[in-house]
Amino acid sequence: MRSSRRLPTGRWWTSVQLGMIGLGRMGANMSRRLLRGGHQVVVYDRSPEPGQALASEGATSAASLEDLVAGLTTPRHIWVMVPSGAPVQQTIESLLPLLSKGDCIIDGGNSNYRDSITRGEMLAKHGILFLDCGTSGGIWGLANGFCLMIGGPEEGFQSMEPIFQTLAPADGYAHFGPSGAGHYVKMVHNGIEYGLMQAYAEGFELLNASEYDLDLQRIAALWNKGSVVRSWLLELAESALEKDPDLSKIAGYVEDSGEGRWAIQEAMDRDVPAVVLAYSLFARFRSRQQESFGAKLLAALRQEFGGHAVRPPDSPK
Known about the structure:
The chain is of the alpha/beta class. Helix content is 48%, strand content 12%. The chain has an eight-stranded mixed beta sheet, with helices on both faces.
């Protein structure tokens, strides 16, 4: 049955049955948002607990990939929300013999766009549609919606548009072209995110080092009221500083999930001077060092050419 709502493209909204594989922080909340939007969701995770929790909210919990596929009517739509690389590849290879022509697989994780191109070509040979969907929104997506950057065949996009409309806020999804386009846009998105976060980190470090007794949470709150640097990231900084004003409860160790590296490699391949993006990635590498060998060498060189004093390893900084 169709409702009275139309999609932005003019087509009518309809309830779509979807299989969701991977029920981590993103996959579970995406499933919840779809259930609340009136869709039927069959869920699967290697750990049974997330599926059981979603079953209590209206989802159908599958015990295996075979069980999930069997619980979907054709043409099947299956969203894969697992870590990039081998987990995505293994999941797709396991699904392939279970699917039929006309079925559609969506990779909503942070895969390398080149892998998405390859997967799209491979699945097309079997008559299976493949969409790569860069997904942003984090743990706030359940309430606020997820920003969706989509690549793949138009046919697949149209069949999945009611799902995208439900997951995203108003005007929060777009189809950018063939396989790989969605993950390419998400890769650059995450590179920009690295740069924005680094700028905030350096600015607040300078405020914290000043001669004034500054209330950093108050500054973040102020800057979010009409300032040109206001943003959702700054709202999150305000929230973090409110919970832990001097950030004493966390270590300054910053991981990266791969997209920043891919963005820098793409910039080098295309001769694009992505200076801020590159520095932001390397700053994360530095955060993981308990002791920098490069800094030791700098100190040694100053001593060698100028006789400058050096400190022993155990001296306070």
